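We were asked to recover a plausible sequence for a given structure. The inputs and outputs are reproduced exactly as logged, with field labels preserved.

PROBLEM: sequence recovery
POSITIONS: 218
GIVEN STRUCTURE:
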């Protein structure tokens, strides 16, 4: 089978990671959630806020393990659940705007995609990390639907949340991510936009699988 990379970008809670994971599993590819990496560095920053970012990224040890989904370890501690909490979510876009942080993570991400066969989701995957990805998807959905989805997520995880605060957080983060100086969130010229508002997870997944199969079978 022809090996390809798939880049999935888009704003917060558009469904990127849920669908990227399913696509990877159905196509026998590796799934990488880059947002989790920025969240893990944010957790390290919150623990040692006085450290400058260059020193921080040199000191920490990040490990990504793919085992039926992605687990992320910060200095050998499994932080996969901890990084979803509100303190991390509130600070992650600030940390992700730092040059030293982006250089470190983009380097790791490019190593992971060098051999192809990866579905990677984030904000700058199609534009910076794998600009030559065989398939690029830009996933969007209305802010209200995204906030409703995230509310359900948080309730399931036992994280305190209400709809109005989630709308605010999503709008604030999208604005920061789209207007930052380094690698802002922007749709790559050759990305295919999918508006998932009102679409089921299954329908979005099937659409991306069909696009991928066209490229793989060509
Ligand atoms: O899942 P959710 O939409 O809440 O966000 P995420 O994918 O976990 O990403 C968290 C934050 O990390 C984003 O709001 C961005 O600030 C940053 N990020 C980034 O800058 N570049 C990426 N490739 C992935 C995430
Ligand atoms: O990765 P990203 O922040 O873009 O979104 P996500 O964490 O994958 O999706 C947020 C929530 O929306 C998850 O609970 C998904 O199950 C849900 N979702 C949905 O209900 N319908 C879709 N078409 C896509 C995602």
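RECOVERED SEQUENCE:
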């Amino acid at each position: 089978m022809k090996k390809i990379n798939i880049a999935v970008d888009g704003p917060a809670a558009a469904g990127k990671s849920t669908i990227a994971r399913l696509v990877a599993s159905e196509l026998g590819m590796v799934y990488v959630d880059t947002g989790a990496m920025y969240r893990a560095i944010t957790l390290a920053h919150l623990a040692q806020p006085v450290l400058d970012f260059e020193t921080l990224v040199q000191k920490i040890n990040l490990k990504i393990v793919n085992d039926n989904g992605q687990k992320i370890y910060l200095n050998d501690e499994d932080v996969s659940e901890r990084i979803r909490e509100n303190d991390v979510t509130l600070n992650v876009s600030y940390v992700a705007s730092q040059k030293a942080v982006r250089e470190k993570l983009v380097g790791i991400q490019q190593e992971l995609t060098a051999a192809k066969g990866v579905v990677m989701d984030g904000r700058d995957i199609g534009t910076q990390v794998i600009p030559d990805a065989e398939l690029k998807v830009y996933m969007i959905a209305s802010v209200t639907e995204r906030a409703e989805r995230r509310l359900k997520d948080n309730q399931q995880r036992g994280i305190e949340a209400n709809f109005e605060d989630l709308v605010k957080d999503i709008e604030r983060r999208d604005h920061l991510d789209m207007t930052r100086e380094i690698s802002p969130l922007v749709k790559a010229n050759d990305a295919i936009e999918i508006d998932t508002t009102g679409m089921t997870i299954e329908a979005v997944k099937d659409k991306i699988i069909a696009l991928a199969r066209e490229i793989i079978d060509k």
